[in-house]
Amino acid sequence: MNGTTAIVDRSTPVYTINTAIETYQLGKVYRTGFWLDRKVESLKECTLEVFQGETFGLLGLNGAGKTTLLKTLLGIVKPTSGKGLLLGKPLGDRSVKQKIGYLPENPYFYDFLTGWELLEYTAGLFEIPRSIQKQRIPELLELVGLTHSAAKKKQLRQYSKGMVQRVGMAQALINDPELVFLDEPMSGLDPLGRKQMREIIISLGDAGKTVFFNSHVLSEVEQICNRVGILARGELICCGTLSELLTNNDKYYYAVGRGGNREILSRWIGNIDYHDDIWSGQINGEPQEFIGTLNLMGAELLSLKQGHASLEEFFMEQMEIRGIRSST
Asked: Confidence band (pLDDT; 50, 70, 90) for 54?
């Protein structure tokens, strides 16, 4: 690792300790093959809690079971085994639907509608009065960064993938849901769009909403989530806050200094970086011994910071432990 990893720790949110999502040994087996005689276990005894008001990120390689878990929670897919609760109601309970928002990974809408018409249509499904729609729709368009002219004049077939993703987020929030499910919400967005989507998700958490989302963009998860879980081959292998998952792993020290013998310094710092007389890098060995060596050389230590593995490094380590080297 080169340098310290910047992690925004959102692991101590303000929320009531009530569960928005609970699962107990939830499993899903699909039958495949011409005669449906082969079984694929997509989800294995998944036991999970997501608390009200927190933002929870579910990580995993392609085919790990993330979308299966999300669709099972939503009632789109029926579990083969186990049970679960959504906002205190059994999975599939229709009374909960009014309180849920959902953005699928590859949203597809009636492409002859404009963005504005789509939001009106979605609001109608939730039986939201017209008077509220007139206020709510412009607010959502502003939130997701779509102009009124594009929303009212352009049909969805003329939208870019990023614009479809934005209007998809708007329709997911049209009913002011308590619980929001987002499947790969950063998909198809440019860097500016990802930043805006990240800010929207953070604002939902700040407003007390519960957000459950899948993502491959681990750096985004570090900045957004209160807690994360990792799925591997259908199994939830770990779950916790960034602090719980990362700080228990091997720590390292990053030093910046001036002067000293370059040959000796290179023994302590593998990939040492020089800028004039200032050097920096991750030290190998105990920091106290390193400081003692600097003193003997007459070198000056300018800073010594403790770091830890990034979420990406932790994720890859978990995959290696289980011998997983491919997403297929």
From this structure: very high
Domain parsing of the chain, residue ranges: 251-308
pLDDT digits (tens, 9 = 90+) for 6-39: 334 454 444 445 899 999 999 999 988 888 889 9
Mean pLDDT, the chain, as a whole number?
87
Residue 87 clears pLDDT 60, i.e. is over it: yes
With cut-offs at 50, 70 and 90, classify the pLDDT of residue 249: low
Quote the CA–CA distance of 3 and 28 in Å, as a whole number.
42
Domain covering 251-308 in this structure, CATH number: 3.30.70
Over its C-alpha atoms, the chain yields an Rg (Å, rounded) of 24
Secondary structure string (H, E, C) spanning the chain: CCCCCCCCCCCCCCCCCCEEEEEEEEEEEEEECCCCCEEEEEEEEEEEEEECCCEEEEECCCCCCHHHHHHHHHCCCCCCEEEEEECCEECCCHHHHHHEEEECCCCCCCCCCEHHHHHHHHHHHCCCCHHHHHHHHHHHHHHHCCCHHHHHHCEHHHCCHHHHHHHHHHHHCCCCCCEEEEECCCCCCCHHHHHHHHHHHHHHHHCCCEEEEECCCHHHHHHHCCEEEEEECCEEEEEECHHHHHCCCCEEEEEEEECCCHHHHHHHECCCEEECCEEEEEECCCHHHHHHHHHHHCCEEEEEEEEECCHHHHHHHHHHHCCCCCCC
215-246 residue pLDDT tens: 877 888 888 999 999 999 999 999 999 888 87
Query: How far is residue 110 from each of residues 107, 118, 155, 159, measured CA to CA in Å?
Result: 10, 8, 9, 12
